[in-house]
Write a structure and sequence with these properties.
- The chain is mostly helical.
- It contains 15 helices and no strands.
Length: about 375
């Protein structure tokens, strides 16, 4: 008798990889605009906007860690469906509330749903036969969706519907994401099984150093990115120009990730990281001096280009430092918790100092991170 059960994919399709990653990351990838609009809607100062971002990313980070345990024990297509629908429901309710407290609580709930969904996207991406290519496409999908939102929402949604309209757009995108759930593999392929956090032994010192550098790097990057819109508004740049600049920056970030995937290790790791550090420094100088739309747009684009070009190299260096795979599994946690700390720290630096203080801090942190990764990129034999 023929099997009438619907067949499940052996590996997750690119529709699922792109949809889970893009939907889960869409608030983070539009964080400067989102925090700016929320701050205006609820009359929040710099510190209040920073803490709002931190609370969202706190829920995102805690959920991303807990999801590693959950993903291995439940039906993954059903989990993806539940996460898409729960985030859509919370966003829809948040779009209609006037209470600042309720809005904050709902936003933390959205962070929990999106954090678990983002962890799921990392897991299924790593199971593809060519994970480097899959990661490049996943990251491209994330930044392109962010770019589309940044291009459309400020022009067509915010003038008429405000923050509620923006949240409604996010909810609609999450509902559309449910269509990708059937393309999520129910179980990991046997070849993808690797030691996880439960493995014995201590992490190698090189892996710990890489994770610490990535965590610090992410704090600095998210601090600058989350207050990019506030910086432009402070200089009197109009909202449409800001939206266009941030959209162009998101596209530049996608091009950076694709360039890293194409270049890979053809020139080694040290050279590309050193070149990226120079681009990163140029972006911070332009942010510091950017008092017109063109300088701000150039700063944002170079910043995102450097960020998303460097990340694949940093992750690969961490992976090479620990053959067990445990360090690699902590990379997503570094992203989440580094991004959680960045907005709150940025709010404190801007409120107690200035935007210049923020950029000096980001430059110091980035320099230390690049120096650490450049050292780790050099083989141990060459350092003797």
């Amino acid at each position: 008798m023929a099997n009438t059960q619907p067949s499940r994919p052996a590996i997750s399709g690119f529709a699922a990889i792109i949809a889970t990653g893009a939907c889960a990351a869409m608030i983070f990838n539009t964080l400067p605009l989102f925090l700016g609009v929320a701050a205006d809607e609820y009359q929040l100062g710099s510190q209040g906007a920073g803490w709002l971002g931190t609370l969202y990313l706190g829920g995102f980070g805690l959920s991303s860690v807990a999801a590693a345990w959950l993903i291995a024990r439940v039906n993954r297509p059903r989990l993806g469906l539940v996460l898409f629908l729960s985030s859509a429901l919370l966003l829809a309710v948040a779009s209609g509330t006037d209470s600042r407290l309720l809005f904050t609580l709902l936003l933390v709930g959205v962070g929990f749903s999106f954090g678990a969904l983002y962890s799921l996207s990392f897991v299924i991406t790593g199971e593809r036969p060519n994970p480097t290519r899959a990661f490049g496409l996943k990251l491209l999908g994330e930044v392109l969706l962010g770019a589309a939102v940044l291009a459309v929402v400020p022009v067509f949604i915010l003038p008429h519907y405000g923050l509620g309209g923006m949240l409604a757009v996010f909810a609609a995108l999450a509902v559309c994401g449910t269509l990708s759930a059937p393309y999520i593999a129910s179980n990991a392929p046997a070849r993808a099984n690797a030691p996880g956090l439960g493995g014995g032994g201590r992490l190698p010192r090189r892996a710990i150093a890489g994770l610490a550098a990535l965590f610090a790097f992410t704090i600095g990057q998210s601090a600058v990115w989350s207050f990019a819109e506030r910086r432009a508004s402070f200089e009197g740049i109009d909202s449409e120009a800001i939206g266009f600049a941030l959209s162009a920056a998101a596209v530049a970030g996608g091009l950076g990730s694709l360039a890293a995937a194409w270049l890979s290790n053809r020139l080694g790791q040290l050279g590309p990281l050193a070149a990226t550090a120079l681009i990163h420094a140029a972006s911070l100088i332009l942010f510091f001096a950017g008092r017109d739309p063109w300088l701000f747009g150039a700063a944002a684009s170079l910043f995102m280009l450097a960020w998303l070009f460097a990340l694949p190299y940093m992750a690969s260096i961490i992976s090479a430092a620990d053959s067990s795979g445990r360090a690699t599994s902590l990379v997503a946690a570094c992203f989440a918790f580094g991004s959680m700390a960045g907005p709150a720290l940025a709010g404190q630096l801007v409120a107690r100092g200035s935007f210049a203080t923020l950029y000096v801090f980001a430059a110091i942190v980035a320099l230390a991170a690049y120096a650490s990764f450049c050292r780790l990129a050099v083989p141990a034999s060459a350092r003797r």
